[in-house]
Amino acid sequence: MHVLITGGSRGIGAATARLCAARGWDVSVNYVANAEAAAAVVAEVEAAGARAVALQADMGEIDAAETLFDAAEAALGPVTGFVNNAGIVAKASMLADMEPARVKRMIDVNVTGAILALRAAARRMPTDRGGPGGAIVNISSAAARLGSPATYVDYAASKGAIDTLTLGMAQELAKGGVRVNCVRPGIVETDIHLDSHGFDRAAQAGPSLPMGRAGRANEIAEAIVWLLSDAASYTSGALLDVAGAR
Ligand code: NAP
């Protein structure tokens, strides 16, 4: 079992890498800039007795997905699990005040990057393309159904695209033995909020959330790893909210 996780160096991706290793998966850890964080995750996976490799790639670049999958397979063999997790936010703002370049980068990484990553998976994993079959988990957000007004509607729309992709790709790949599902986290304790709010939004929002706290990365990872596992063998095309009743 070999899982490739985009954005596996920090946050939800890193928690997923650690949990996958504990459940017997070898792990390819993609990152964009933080080589140190990626190396730390690789070390943790190896300490759990699994194999791991850190692979740099900017998923917002047009050729990144093909290069990444080739490198992952060269290092650890055929990919049987794919977590389409890399994603960015940007400074909280009204749409009217956003720079066009920021919106373009959001779509390049969160939508085009995710679609091309699914394309790379779809060219390799299905049994009717000579692959091993397996499971894919796309990472969307509760923002896809909330809209994120006055915060980042561009991000929310990018996650709506991930939901829709899940529905289509689950059907495209079903006969090839590949399940495709989606996890939609609520507000989770990771670094991502510093990029949008400049402060720890998860801690600040916590008391006002239904459970009185934000989610933890490992709580999202549990759902992702379940969807990757054979325990979810008849689950495909699902959009799973892990958002603490938000
Ligand atoms: P995070 O803590 O900011 O970590 C982001 C990860 O993605 C890092 O590993 C980062 O690599 C990588 N990354 C960023 N841009 C990339 C790019 N262009 N190419 C490749 N990798 C890239 O984020 P997170 O909170 O774990 O979020 C993970 C996913 O969950 C995202 O899709 C996000 O939208 C979604 N989500 C998060 C929350 C939340 O509250 N945290 C809620 C809903 C959905 P480096 O370490 O190299 O920078």
From TrEMBL:
<dbReference type="GO" id="GO:0016614">
    <property type="term" value="F:oxidoreductase activity, acting on CH-OH group of donors"/>
</dbReference>
<comment type="similarity">
    <text>Belongs to the short-chain dehydrogenases/reductases (SDR) family.</text>
</comment>
<dbReference type="InterPro" id="IPR036291">
    <property type="entry name" value="NAD(P)-bd_dom_sf"/>
</dbReference>
<dbReference type="Pfam" id="PF13561">
    <property type="entry name" value="adh_short_C2"/>
</dbReference>
<dbReference type="InterPro" id="IPR002347">
    <property type="entry name" value="SDR_fam"/>
</dbReference>
<dbReference type="InterPro" id="IPR020904">
    <property type="entry name" value="Sc_DH/Rdtase_CS"/>
</dbReference>
<protein>
    <submittedName>
        <fullName>NAD(P)-dependent dehydrogenase, short-chain alcohol dehydrogenase family</fullName>
    </submittedName>
</protein>
<keyword id="KW-0560">Oxidoreductase</keyword>
